[in-house]
Amino acid sequence: MTVGLFIPCYIDQFYPNAAIATLTLLKKLGVDVVYPTKQTCCGQPMANSGFEHLTQGCNDLFIENFSEFDYVVSPSGSCVLHIKDHLHADKAEDKALGIRKKIYELTEFLIDVLKVEKLTASFPHKVGVHQSCHGQRGLMLAQMSELVEAPFSKPLHLLNMVEGLELINLKRPDECCGFGGTFCVAEEAVSVKMGKDRVADHLNGGAEYITAADMSCLMHMEGILRRQNSNVKVIHIAEILNAQEF
Question: What gap in Å lies between CA 161 and CA 143, rounded to an integer?
Fold first, then answer.
């Protein structure tokens, strides 16, 4: 099995530790991982802003970089969902469809493909889990609370394997943080209020860290935490699953 590692641009530029942890974790689990060095943005920001017709260059490059791998894995639910729903190419639609079928968000890949049931990680801290909208409602990484069905969460299942980690309880476990990509620019006031509410739920639960499968949501909440001079930190789930704190 050979996996192509897709690292979104904002992780590459601002949160490289999340990318490094993803790579290290996959290798630790015996996966042959390749990082295509010519990869760039997947085109999601343009598409979300109403300019999907300008993303074909991104699509073509993505297909060139990732079509030959057995799987494509990324530590970003939102970018993975964008590729799953929007990757097209008039001259290579078969390759585009192939990638859409084999791209996975990291926790999804660990649970559904690798069938991970044990980790050697240790992270003795109180952690709040943010279920990002794209991951939860788009990729079905976790059950939505408004549905009267059996609950499940792939990120929580993995975090429960981490030694010493204490998960806090949230009053609204799947509420949006308000980031929404370009939404936080177009509707700044609404986005900030939603983010403050989301952060407050974690703070009231006594979280030392807030984690998620989407670094973009964590980036939004990190900005709010910093403005509040809070000691609570954000951390991508890959960093926890790869942690060795004793």
Answer: 19
Instruction: Retrieve residue 174's tokens.
Output: 């799947």
Strands 71-74 and 103-105: parallel
Distance CA 196, CA 201 (A): 9
**Is residue 134 classed as helix, strand or coil in its secondary structure?**
helix
Report the 10 Å Cβ neighbour count for 17. Answer: 14
| The pLDDT value given to residue 117 | 95
> Quick one: pLDDT band at residue 245, thresholds 50, 70, 90?
low
Of residues 178, 186, 190, the one with CA closest to residue 217: 178
Secondary structure class of 76 (helix, strand, coil)? strand
- The pTM of this model reads 0.94
Instruction: Give just the sign of the alpha carbon dihedral 121, 123, 129, 130.
Output: negative
- Which tokens belong to 194? 């939603």
Q: Give the pLDDT confidence of 134-160 residue by residue, as tens digits.
A: 999 999 999 988 888 888 999 999 999
**Within 10 Å of residue 6's Cβ, how many Cβ atoms?**
27
CB 99 within 8 A of CB 64: no
82 secondary structure, DSSP code: H
